[in-house]
Specification:
The complex is a heterodimer. Helix content of chain A is about 30%, strand content about 15%. By secondary structure, chain A is α+β, with helices and mostly antiparallel strands. The chains are: A alpha+beta, B mainly beta.
Amino acid sequence: MRKNALTSREMAQFVTHGFLRFDGIVPDHLNQAVLKEISEGRLDGVRYNQERQSFPEYFAQAPAYASIYDLPHVSRIVSSLVGPAPAIDHCALHSVYANTKHAQFWHADATIDPRTEAFDIQLYYFPHDTPLEAGGTLILPGSHYRRVHETTIARYQNIQGQVHMVCPAGTLLVAHHNLWHCSQPNRTANHRYMIKLRLNPTVPQTRLFDTSDLQDPEIPTILSTHHAWPGAEIRLEILQRIRLWRFLTQTDVDVELWLSRLENSPQARVHSHQ
Amino acid sequence: MPSAVTATATVRQQLLFLYLTHPNPTAPTIAWSLFDGTGQAERISGDADEPPYGSVLEAMKDGWRVMQVASQQPAYPGMEHRTAYLPFEFILERLVEMTDA
């Protein structure tokens, strides 16, 4: 079980892929307790946190679910991304009934979100085993920089590199708010549940993680990963990763001069000497 | 009501959307969707991990007709590095003759 904050390498993976997944990170006794809360209707519906209640206030009816975020290893993951005291945006119980044949359309949860230096996270929690036939959420790695609005991407059915969330009980998918996703058919005889919690940062998201490995030579390789789907636009994706990475790390790191050459304006130096 | 049944041919349209890595019709397929007016194929998100055709040209060789190719516009000032939808979208059709007895 992890004990520390996210590493720089993990943060680079988040910046590149738009998510990190932690399989079975929640212990089974808590998974069982949360399933009981679900069965009792304590987590029903979508609740927006207009009153900006604290975790204990907001989840007064579902203390087992709230306690997941008190687990030290989970708390450190969350604080590495959105700081030590993020605000609850909303929480929603997602249920897919047994023998459901339809799938959601591809969508991003956000409205078009023009922020470049701040992001919310969404924690997808799978309280029970989710095999492929139960239709765990389908996600598209690397899609989080695309400025789209909700189901305006619904025309797409399949995209190279899409990933089905097949995972054991207690798995957390920690995602950028703009990651493309959709729920999938549940061909089992049991209901499938997933709880999604959105958190807003309340501090600048700079160096909140463990920076002791910031010089890891693998990080530029991670930041320049080619996903299967961007095609000719991959360099634009890499530019956006570098920009976010620079903000998160407060450095001027680059990958193969992608950004530096665009910032090179010798004429500006000429003008400054005049 | 007439008792004799006459065979009639009815044409239905199938639409295939292919998204390529770049605007050349021979480029590899990165995303795809099928909408079948015959009602025989109900396609949904996530139902296949391999595309039906490797490129638009491959689909053309199998009888699909190109209805629309990806249009290209220069980037708006200030938006040169921004991305959104999959840009290299080709729309293809196939007409299927259905016989109603």
